[in-house]
Amino acid sequence: MVSQITRGIKISVLTSFEGTYFKNYKIHFAFTYHVTIENQSKDSVQLNSRHWEIYDALNNVEIVDGEGVIGKKPVLKPGETHTYSSGCLLSSPIGAMKGYFNMVNFTSTRSFKVEIPAFKLGAPFALN
């Protein structure tokens, strides 16, 4: 698990390899990631959007931008957490992801970015 705190918001990520499958005559490597967002600040905040950079070992980069996370824009009061799971497909058994969440502080009404720490994606058979 990797974790990082930006402006009182702690992001923790845990990953797992789900397996391989063929689609359009090409092998894909499936991964899930579980993200926990913890508000360690004294203010209420809301997650509005996300930005992901997904890398594989073949120098392919996929950029994903979108509203909220899995259809939600969670509001976190001080001390609260929000956890969600999602996934991605890679063209190689090894890769990485990083990104950020765009959030708003309800006390100051200011928007700010919360960094998502870079984390590795790896099929167990490829890591030996």
TrEMBL record:
Residues 3-128 form the ApaG domain. InterPro entries: ApaG_domain (IPR007474), ApaG_sf (IPR036767). It comes from the Bacteria. PROSITE patterns: APAG (PS51087). Gene3D superfamilies: ApaG domain (2.60.40.1470). It holds the Pfam family DUF525. NCBIfam families: PRK05461.1. This is Co2+/Mg2+ efflux protein ApaG. It comes from Flavobacterium celericrescens.
